[in-house]
């Protein structure tokens, strides 16, 4: 079930809210757990059992870890739990990838399993693994209440696309959380902002990307328009979903950490990855990079650590070689920055640093959104005029003019400029009083526009369902 859908907005969510706020405190987690299972089962009822197996195994093994009499036994239990969780992920997400590559390497024809990918498995697997490892490290105690632990795993606001919420960050909230009108108001506003980003912007840029793919007129300029459109589509799609998740979490009394911090204003690739999908970056940092030794090792080992993390980052996003190449592409850029380029970037004008980041981000996302390595190469050849195509054409100029306003608006909203101006106006006496009236009207207008768009059955994909 998509957040940006009529069934969710006008049936599921109101019913959850009515039930949740009607029951006493001791039943609130049970309500969230039950409705979250319904939310997940809406599209994939069979995979609820897979999720249940993941929850039960992690919960039980964490309790055994707390009772383990020796560090060795505790470590063995942790490894067993992590292996179980990642075995599910490996089987459902990567089995056909390994079989295909085995067939290609050996010339055999082992049949593919053709298993449907359970929605959100990459996200909830990482959440369960972080819990297991944190219990092993002593960063948190194992939760003895399986309902509370299950609620943490299946909590529908962040279940299918994050942000990746760590148990230690919300452990206290599972037991004791407060609900106020202020939190609820903030949550509604944040949800509406995310909904608008997803439906009004991400979907529009997604349509342009689809138009480009279907067009018979491929030009150099159209390739760059497509690259820019996809950069904005994936930003508004994923950051919009994160906004909706954070907003819903706040309504239910949870404070989730931020997942995006205007990444396109970055002045280096290193900074970009501190601002983009922050929950994933911090997960790999704390559970892979630092345990490998981080940067407090010899140079060869440091390089090894970087490339392991970025190989896994790419592979986490998808079971295809273009995702691995995408991850290693950024790993290479980060190594170049850390070993040599960063000191030169720091001296360069800010505008050149921004252009540098946007240029390589565009290339990276073109690779990311390709259907194969060959497709990525064809796209890159088209972008750099190596495909024997003209620079521009009639259709290219038509779509550039048609979407020019969207590009201007999207580019502005992808920076903190609008937010900063509105905050300054809101801080004044007159501005504050005016906004007190206009804010509710503005968010109501967003909801009306989104409803009309969705009711029309317009283009409404969600990119991160594939992960």
Percent of residues in beta strands? under 5%
For the record, give the distance between the C-alpha atoms at the N and C termini, rounded to a whole number: 15 Å
Count of all domains: 2
Provide mean pLDDT, rounded: 93
In the predicted model, the low-confidence regions spanning at least 5 consecutive residues are none
Tell me the structural class. mainly alpha
What would you call the shape?
A: globular
| Series of H and E elements | HHHHHHHHHHHHHHHHHHH
User: What's the β-strand tally?
Assistant: 0
How many helices does DSSP assign?
19
Quaternary structure state of the chains depicted: single chain
- Helicity level: over 70%
Cα Rg: 23 Å
Q: Summarize the biggest pleated sheet.
A: none
Description:
- The longest helix is centred in the first third of the chain and has 36 residues, at 71-106.
- It is globular, with a radius of gyration of 23 Å.
- The protein has 467 residues and is an all-alpha fold.
- The protein starts with 5 loop residues before the first helix and ends in a 12-residue tail after the last helix.
- The model has no long low-confidence stretch (mean pLDDT 93).
- The protein contains 19 helices and no strands.
- The protein folds into 2 domains: 6-177, no CATH class; 183-455, no CATH class.
